[in-house]
Amino acid sequence: MKELVTIAEKIAAKLIERKQTIAVAESSTGGLISAALLAVPGASAYFLGGGVIYTRDARRILMDIPDEAMKGIRSASEAYAKLLASQMRQRFATDWGLSETGATGPTGNRYGDAAGHSCMAVAGPQTSVITLETGSADRQANMQAFANAALNLLLQNLSR
Hints:
- The chain is α/β, with parallel strands linked by helices.
- It has 5 helices and 5 strands.
- It has helices at residues 2-18, 32-38, 56-63, 78-92, 139-158, and strands at 22-26, 47-52, 96-103, 117-123, 128-133.
- Helix 2 (32-38) links the parallel strand 1 and strand 2.
- The mean pLDDT is 96.
């Protein structure tokens, strides 16, 4: 967690300096991204909220994304990560939305992705999406790696 907080401190400084805000939708990281951002003193200046969108019900209830909107989009994909980030940004009226969706392990997901697969996206003044494949079935290590990659993706976009 310490490594995640170190990245979050850099993110916090940039968001506070710019008077910008963020909301987070995460899945397989289980709240690690939000926890890292909230571990930084002063988080209330930039962190408006987030959710662990781990199931179809969570997607419908918390994100207000109906099944019809998912036509042609599957979970744990770049398209879904972009949808989550942009929906979170819109619902919270923030400058930035950050999302993560994947398969932590020890097995893959029902969509055919192997353990260690994650997609993450940033929606803001610019949009960015990446896929990470760790090649590992270690659930906890993957959760850390996914959260690290998502926070670094946000930091890269804030540094542009």
